[in-house]
Write a structure and sequence with these properties.
The complex is a heterodimer of chains A (410) and B (594). With 410 residues, chain A is α/β, with parallel strands linked by helices. Chain A has six helices and 29 strands. In chain A, the strands form seven sheets. In chain A, strands 1, 2, 5, 6, 7, 8 and 21 form a seven-stranded mixed sheet that branches. Chain A has a five-stranded parallel sheet with strand order 10-19-12-13-14. A five-stranded mixed sheet of chain A has the order 24-22-29-26-27, with no helix packed on it. The longest helix of chain A has 16 residues. The radius of gyration of chain A is 22 Å and the shape is globular. Chain B has four domains: 57 residues, Alpha-Beta Plaits; 156 residues, FAD/NAD(P)-binding domain (3-Layer(bba) Sandwich), CATH 3.50.50; 181 residues, D-Amino Acid Oxidase, subunit A, domain 2 (D-Amino Acid Oxidase, Chain A, domain 2); 84 residues, Arc Repressor Mutant, subunit A, CATH 1.10.10. In chain B, the strands form six sheets. In chain B, strands 6, 7, 14, 15, 16, 17, 23 and 24 form an eight-stranded mixed sheet that branches. In chain B, α1 runs antiparallel to α2. The chains are: A alpha/beta (410), B alpha/beta (594). The interface between A and B is large, with 55 and 60 residues. The structure holds flavin-adenine dinucleotide. Flavin-adenine dinucleotide binds next to α3, β18, β22 and α12 of chain B.
Chain lengths: 410, 594
């Protein structure tokens, strides 16, 4: 079986990419491991979404997306698992595990949209052994919103990501007491609007510069100890024990690229996703990435824009030789995306996403080409929790493979 | 002065309340302190060649042992008569049970936890040691070398993955080669095969990313690695397939001893009447020996902490496990000054004093992850499994000197286990001394996993000897089948075979654990094995489901559902491991939203 575009992962970004690709080709396959499309969206039935100038709940939004994709010619396989991708001359050979057996297909291009996974308790350096009652916020959403079971009656959160706040919301609505949210950073990791909507509204205290210093309990969590951190050190006199039956960890996310890592796709040290060019193509010709497997988005508007572009790019893909140059940035950035530019491809109006490494006031984002300023704009304030974007028209610039482009905050 | 009065004097110097006296040819320590370090020091001071061992009765202020009895009581084993009762379902108990199943005997193993292999035999790096690591300890080295040689056959019989890629001891400077002569002589004496000194070029052929500073290495070709849990489960399951019985959630609570014989063993599931008892209880072995009136040793648990790294960095130890030689000093990366032999040796003496016995290994595991560790600490708590974040950071800092490429974000997990160390620092494998019908397999610390097949042979021999002495006619089990089919991830099968399997059972085509690519069919297979277990940890350990990058955030609910379906019960009743390790409290009453 031959396909023009294979999209792996049926979450929001995979669905948009598939719909867009279907506008150019009638030979598109979308593969999803779960029983239904939706990915993370399946776990957020009560969140609010403002998309396509409509207001939805998560559940309504998912129904809307499914309706939308069903109107296209995209072929959809659910309960199907992409096991292996092998690169052949001009195509990819892909093994897909289904309940009917292993299906092998050939795809001209692939879009990886497999999402992310949350850092586990061990990766968050939770003290002690991992006993029952230590969950990630992902697990909470799975238990409560997907299966309809309550894994905690009284809990503490470690980490204030937006994902954590969604988990808190689901727990509160089902009667769980959330004692508090503790974050090691000195500012919240979530968007302000979510903080107001959930923490402030339900009076859940947020303790910044706090960490978990102990977990008590033999078979199930019985209590935890938290402490304040000052200048990177635990302040002894602030150690406090809180009785609870669960510790819920939400310490950040890692893009999932398990399928393309074995092909030796170059990975970014900064986004932890693959390094891509302005078309979101990875270092492997013909493989694109979008959504949270490209980088962790905290706002879905940018993610949808990117997913649509990627869908289009993949459907138009022609194997041509690329001339890649690197994008550099100073230490004031957490990341700049894309990290590479293909000079032989379209250079007009390239959309760059970035996140500052800390928050700034009265600063300008500047871009230099061979030390010459080509972009300067004030962003006030620059918030480290928020992803920003800018558009650069590089067509006007004379770029060669020797050019250096650097992003600065000044 | 007799040796006991010397010991008495020495321990009094540690703490004036301490005293030592002789009892049943052991050194008995008494007293009280608030410092655990003092107890350890006293125990080590009291070691003497003229006695069986040290019995420590010094109490630690405010310390109480936790009760870890299973939360289950019934009479399923009450009044049962058995030939052999093995207490403890770790690697030692399981290997012994399999040896015993080669005879026509009624052999029963009781294990207090909800699965086989939950303690030292699980919290274990899976190193099959060459024996050189422990050359100073008579029984540990002897059983390790003998056990090591048995693994090729065993692993193929039991279908557990095993690799024998060798181990390395890395050296930096030319003058450090003297250490090799020492190792070489010992290896000859212990019959460790093939030990040789290699240069950097050969080293790179074996381990292509060996640390930059390693100019020489001692190569120990017999070293290997295995999955300790799968190996232990396979031993126990093969024993069950050959007629032995395993009873989980069953704890030995007390014994009735009369006329130097164990008459009965009381458990939470009734009182058992065995002809002979095998003590394979790991860190609790001195407690069980005491119940049996056969105590000649004390277990002082040593907590060992290991750090597990992501497969992404498995290149640092692609095939082998290695350790820096104890005579090699490597300083910070920045330090490039040459060290001459004299300064080198001086540094070395200083360094060795500080770091004695705490070299970290870089361990290639059979699953492809690299483990670094262990860091060791004395602890009064027998199951002290709570790793200290400081220790973890410490391990990482130290290891970065060996492999600078390791980052904190490469850590996927870490764990602590406790080693059942005696003050004599050696295994105690023997027939009962005061009590006749007990066989001790105690003090089985590192490398107990490696030594397990050899220990099991001797323990089974002692057991059979005893039964024969009692006039029992012990017959060989003629239908003993050494082959066991272990559950294996079908993703490792050739495609055509996997496809065929899916067509015969579509559940093999439903992937539940995305990270490790494990299907519903495989999870169900785990519940069809000779020792079926119905909890999440057991499924994770047996087939790897939920053991990958996301550690089950996505799939644990699905695995729970699969177990509940099989057990025909509500998913709330499916636990992490023990009966108290609850995961879910209640059903959500129609998910609410305003
Ligand atoms: C961190 C660590 C790493 C190690 N790495 C290696 C290695 O790489 N290679 C190697 O060769 N060795 C290694 N070892 C050593 C090896 O793991 C042990 O020597 C070996 O597992 C001991 O097996 P065991 O059966 O004696 O003990 P255990 O596995 O502890 O088994 C004892 C069992 O007895 C049960 N029990 C106790 N009391 C009772 C009771 N009253 N009633 C019923 N059941 C009871 C316990 O629940 C337990 O399951 C390591 C040890 C540790 C701690």
């Amino acid at each position: 079986m031959n396909k023009d575009v294979l999209i792996i992962g049926g979450g929001i970004s995979g669905i948009y990419a598939a719909i867009e690709a279907a506008s150019k080709s009638s030979n598109i396959l979308l593969v999803e491991n779960e029983k239904q499309l939706g990915g993370v969206l399946r776990r957020l039935p009560f969140n609010d979404f403002n998309v396509d100038s409509k207001k939805f709940t998560g559940k309504e939004y998912l129904d809307y997306l499914i309706q939308k994709i069903n109107k296209t010619q995209v072929e959809i396989w659910t309960e199907s698992y992409v096991s292996k991708i092998t690169k052949e001359d001009s195509t990819f050979s892909v093994d897909i595990i289904t309940r009917e057996g292993i299906k092998s297909i050939k795809a001209k291009t692939i879009i990886n949209a497999t999402g992310y996974h949350e850092k586990t308790a061990s990766q968050s350096f939770i003290p002690g052994s991992i006993i029952a009652g230590i969950f990630t916020s992902t697990a909470i959403l799975n238990y409560v919103n997907l299966m309809g079971y309550l894994p905690t009656k009284k809990c503490v959160f470690y980490g204030s990501t937006d994902h954590a706040l969604s988990a808190i919301h689901s727990l509160i609505l089902n009667g769980t007491e959330v004692v508090g949210v503790f974050d090691e950073k000195n500012q919240p990791s979530c968007l302000d609007k979510n903080k107001e909507k959930i923490l402030d509204r339900y009076n859940i205290p947020l303790f910044l510069s706090h960490t978990i210093t102990n977990v008590f309990g033999k078979d199930r969590v019985e209590a935890i100890e938290v402490s304040e951190i000052v200048n990177g050190m635990i302040k002894e006199e602030t150690r406090k024990i809180i009785e609870c039956d669960a510790l819920i960890v939400s310490q950040g996310f890692i893009p999932d690229n398990k399928l393309i890592e074995p092909l030796n796709a170059k990975m970014s040290l900064w986004t932890k996703g693959p390094i891509v060019d302005q078309n979101s193509m990875t270092s492997i010709d013909g493989i694109f990435v979008t959504g949270n497997s490209l980088m962790i988005h905290n706002d879905i508007d940018n993610m949808i824009i990117n997913a649509k572009e990627v869908g289009l790019n993949a459907s138009k893909y022609k194997p041509l030789e690329r001339k890649l140059i690197e994008i550099n940035f100073d230490e004031n950035y957490l990341f700049v995306e894309p990290e590479a530019i293909d000079l032989s491809s379209n250079l007009s109006n390239i959309n760059f996403f970035f996140r500052p490494s800390k928050s700034f006031n009265d600063k300008r984002i500047k871009v230099y080409l061979n030390k010459e300023e080509i972009f300067s704009k004030e962003y006030n304030p620059l918030n480290s929790t928020k992803m920003e974007n800018l558009i650069l028209d590089l067509k006007k610039c004379e770029l060669t493979q020797e050019s250096t482009i650097i992003f600065k905050i000044e | 002065m007799t040796s006991i009065s010397k010991i008495d004097k020495a321990v009094k110097l540690i703490n004036s309340s301490f005293s030592a006296r002789e009892e049943n040819n052991c050194v008995l320590l008494e007293g009280n302190t608030s410092s655990y370090d003092e107890i350890i020091l006293a125990g080590k001071t009291a070691v003497s060649k003229n006695h069986y061992g040290v019995l420590n009765n010094i109490t630690l202020d405010g310390f109480k042992e936790e009760d870890d009895s299973p939360n289950i009581t019934d009479y399923s084993l009450d009044n049962v008569q058995v030939d052999c009762l093995v207490i403890g379902g770790g690697v030692i108990g399981s290997a012994v049970l399999r040896e015993l199943s080669k005879y026509k005997l009624k052999s029963v193993l009781i294990e207090k936890e909800s699965d086989i292999s939950t303690h030292a035999s699980y919290k274990n790096a899976g190193v099959i040691d060459s024996g050189i690591d422990v050359y100073n300890h008579q029984y540990r080295s002897m059983y390790a070398v003998r056990g090591n040689m048995m693994f090729d056959k065993l692993a193929s019989e039991l279908e557990v993955p095993f690799e024998r890629n060798g181990h390395l001891i890395l050296l930096k400077n030319r003058f450090e080669k003297f250490f090799y002569s020492k190792v070489f002589v010992k290896s000859k004496k212990l019959l460790i095969p093939g030990v040789k000194l290699i240069n950097r070029k050969t080293l790179l052929q074996i381990e292509s990313e060996a640390p930059r500073w390693a100019n020489y290495a001692i190569y120990l070709p017999s070293g290997g690695s295995i999955d300790p849990y799968k190996y232990t489960v396979a031993l126990a399951e093969n024993a069950v397939e050959n007629g032995a019985i395993v009873s989980l959630n069953t704890k030995c609570l007390s014994m009735e001893v009369e006329d130097n014989l164990i008459k009965s063993v009381t458990t939470n599931r009734g009182t058992i009447y065995p002809k002979v008892v095998i003590n394979a209880t790991g860190v609790f072995a001195d407690k069980i020996a005491e119940m049996a009136n056969d105590r000649t040793f004390t277990i002082h648990p040593v907590k060992a902490t290991n750090v597990v790294l992501d497969k992404k960095v498995s290149f640092i130890a692609k095939r082998t496990s290695f350790i820096k030689s104890p005579v090699t000093v490597i300083r910070d990366e920045y330090d490039t000054k040459r060290v001459g032999p004299i300064r080198g040796i001086r540094k070395l003496i200083k360094y060795n004093k500080k770091h004695k016995d705490n070299e970290l290994s870089t361990i290639h595991t059979i699953s492809g992850n690299v483990i670094i560790g262990p860091k060791k600490e004395e602890t009064p708590i027998r199951y002290d499994y709570s790793p200290d974040i400081k220790i973890i950071n410490n391990i990482l800092d130290e290891q970065r000197k060996v492999s600078p490429k390791i980052k904190k974000s490469d850590v996927i997990s870490y764990y602590s286990g406790t080693r059942a160390q005696t003050f004599e620092e050696d295994f105690v494998i023997r027939k009962g001394i005061t009590t006749k019908n007990i066989i001790e397999a105690a003090g089985i610390e590192y490398p107990g996993l490696t030594a397990s097949p050899a220990i099991a042979l001797d323990v089974a021999d002692f057991t059979i000897d005893y039964l024969k002495e009692c006039g029992i006619d012990v017959k060989i089990n003629k239908v003993f089948n050494p082959h066991h089919t272990s559950v294996k991830p079908i993703k490792d099968y050739p495609s055509t075979l996997r496809d065929k399997l899916i067509k015969s059972n579509p559940k093999y085509g439903i992937i539940v654990c995305k990270c490790e690519e494990i299907s519903l069919g495989e999870i169900e297979d785990c519940m069809k094995s000779p020792i079926p277990v119905y909890n999440l940890d057991a499924i994770k350990r047996r087939i790897g489901a939920s053991g990958g990058r996301c550690q089950g955030s996505f799939c644990l609910p699905l695995i729970q559902e699969a177990i509940a379906r099989k057990k025909r019960t509500d998913i709330i009743n499916i636990k992490k491991s023990s009966n108290d390790s609850i995961i879910l409290y209640q059903k959500v009453e129609g998910i609410k939203h305003e």
